[in-house]
Design brief:
Length: 543
């Protein structure tokens, strides 16, 4: 039995998930006694025993499904190769998930950090239910930091005979703010380790993986801020490797079946209610501007026709961290397969390295490696969020500690301007706080090496991705994909989108060619103060 009674005071979780406050109004000895009792009862809650059983694996490919019939001939003509398609458009990213889910005939394996209860989240959940109704075997693996808030809905899904739901590193307390708060406070060192992977695998033939969670802001459907994000859609042996990664997580000791955590909530009536509500919502959603606009989208038409253009190569790597990565007492390069693979690829650069990371805290070692590349004659260019665009001031504070060293060492830096809320011309800063919100503009995690190798994944260049979260990514040696990522970098670093950061007489300057600033542009005094305080605090390893 796993007990959650280890006192820990460290850790910062991005996304506004943590930072709880409590207030007790009783006085005297009674207050102390009641507080102690609640601490014991709720803070030291325990996870139920994790059930043992045979490992469950991805279903093998066949020749019968529509995806089999489309993909198999292409693979036979290109032995050993995989086909890749870069997905930079949010509408296309949503359509590919929905339409491929609708085409599923054998299996759906879905792994996500976040699945929002919004327009796109609900519509994709309905595709999952309807696939299961057709007899498709569905496995849904979610990180519990987000899943716990939707415990009843995901438990209802598990009532379907064809749907299995498991959660990564779960909270023992399944509902209520106070239980979550106490458990987080008393076992923060465990709770602070999260599964950041994102995978959508259909019939073990077609997959999507990259930076996108499930939610409106990831699919250009939000009325407020829409993230700049990237996925790779692919077919071929690379799908088998992603499936193997999914299986490793699915069968790991870090994962619990939802029916073990919430047995009373796995209810067929709740499933029926969920299905009816989702179907009714889908009818209403057809009238939304977002869904109507999809009908005229070229990429949607290509996806419907199963005519997605692919770039083929035999040179690729699916990089996936071990589920128990955060518990290993090893050096980062040994514990993180993603860091190891990306570092190796960057180290082999002969001409240039282009990096895109929303959260960028390179540390002394990373800064030294990047400056060392410049000293060897490599061109190193980096794009990250500006303070005004970053949803986590603490992370920006960590990054700012290395900004001058990078610039002095010849690294070129750009910081993305904050996105605007459509129609009002104002900055999309709603809800931005020191420790997180949903307001970040840049969410893509990517790299281009020598114009021929591209990386797309969930991995930020920061200590959290290196040591605290499990991550994944895909390295593809294919000039067309690399050129597409490079073109996006060029667009994102244009004067309309970013400020270039430079040094003038030892002082930082931000410029878009029209205006120049000597302090963080468009960031309030409060934001700058938050970032500076975070820079002073000993929290870098947690960012």
């Amino acid at each position: 039995m796993a007990l959650s009674c280890v006192v820990s005071t460290h850790g910062i979780q991005r996304g506004g998930q943590m930072g709880w406050k409590m207030k007790l109004t009783l006085t005297g000895v009674g207050t102390l006694a009641l507080s102690a009792l609640l601490f014991v009862m709720l803070g030291c809650s325990s996870l139920p025993p994790r059930p043992e059983g045979p490992a469950v694996q991805a279903l093998p490919v066949g020749q019968e499904t529509r995806l089999d019939q489309v993909v198999a001939p292409a693979l036979e003509a290109r032995p050993g190769q995989s086909g890749f398609h870069l997905v930079s458009d949010g509408v296309e990213a949503f359509a590919l998930r929905g339409l491929s889910g609708r085409a599923a005939e054998r299996s759906l394996d879905l792994q996500y950090y976040i699945w929002h209860d919004d327009l796109t989240g609900r519509l994709l959940a309905l595709e999952v239910i309807e696939a299961a109704d057709r007899g498709v075997r569905v496995r849904v693996l979610l990180d519990d930091m987000d899943a716990r808030a939707k415990n009843f809905a995901i438990a209802a899904l598990a009532a379907h005979p064809n749907i299995s739901v498991r959660v990564f590193n779960p909270f023992a307390s399944r509902q209520g703010f106070f239980g979550k708060a106490m458990e987080g406070l008393t076992s923060f060192s465990r709770i602070n380790h999260r599964m950041h992977n994102k995978s959508w695998i259909v019939d073990n033939r077609f997959a999507l993986a990259g930076g996108r969670n499930i939610g409106d802001e990831y699919f250009s459907a939000s009325e407020h801020v829409n993230f700049n994000d990237l996925d790779l859609a692919f077919v071929g042996p690379a799908v088998n490797e992603l499936s193997a990664s999914f299986d490793r997580y699915w069968n790991s000791d870090q994962v619990w079946p939802i029916e073990t955590l919430s047995p009373d909530d796995v209810d067929t009536q709740a499933l029926d209610d969920l299905r009816r509500r989702a179907q009714a919502y889908a009818v209403e959603a057809r009238q939304t501007p977002y869904i109507k606009a999809m009908e005229g989208h070229d990429a949607v038409a290509a996806a419907k026709a199963m005519a997605l253009p692919m770039n083929w190569t035999g040179h690729w790597k699916v990089l996936s961290d071990a589920p128990d990565k955060a518990t290993r007492d090893t050096a980062p390069l040994e514990s993180s397969a993603v860091l190891h693979g990306l570092t190796q690829a960057v180290g082999q650069a002969q001409e240039e390295v282009v990096l895109v990371s929303p959260y960028f805290v390179p540390g002394r070692s990373g800064t030294g490696q990047l400056v060392g590349l410049v000293a060897k004659g490599r061109d190193v260019r980096i794009l990250t969020n500006s303070l005004a665009a970053n949803d986590v001031a603490a992370v920006h504070g960590g990054y700012s500690a290395y900004r001058k060293d990078l610039l002095e060492g010849g690294v070129a830096l750009w910081e993305l301007k904050p996105e605007r809320v459509a129609g009002d011309g104002k900055e999309g800063k709603e809800g931005i706080s020191m420790f997180g919100s949903s307001g970040a503009s840049l969410h893509s995690k990517a790299a281009v090496i020598d114009g021929r190798v591209a990386f797309v994944g969930s991995f930020n260049l920061d200590p959290r991705s290196v040591s605290l979260n499990s991550e994944q990514g895909i390295l593809v040696e294919e000039p067309v994909i690399a050129a597409q990522v490079a073109s996006l970098f060029q667009a994102m670093t244009s004067p309309a989108s970013s400020w270039q950061v430079t040094l003038e007489d030892g002082d930082l300057r931000w410029s878009d060619g029209t205006e120049s600033f000597d302090k963080e542009p468009e960031a309030s005094f409060g934001r700058r103060f938050q970032a500076k305080v975070a820079r002073w605090l000993p929290v870098e390893t947690l960012l």
